[in-house]
Design brief:
105 residues, 41% strand
Length: 105
Amino acid sequence: MNFADHWFWVVFAGIAAYFAFNVLRRGGLKGALFNAEVLGTVAEIEASGPKLIKQVLKVHTLRRNGNRFVGVEVVSKSVASYETLPVVLTPAQAQDLISALSRAL
């Protein structure tokens, strides 16, 4: 092994250690994805779409550094794939989203 090989593994181990620390600090994988403590799941809304793809919107209450946030998780599942997209909103941004959804109706 040359120096470049060692450097790669040192960087890889550092990233893995940081991720593992974040998982432990935030109370699980979902907390690590939101980079906040997940206090609870408020709602799960199943979206209508293609029959082979199941999409669910999950709304979570989050806490980071003593401040509360709203977490919206978009989960897509199909036969051979799983994708989750975490979105963190401040209370003001959550109110803007509520307003936008109301106008869309």
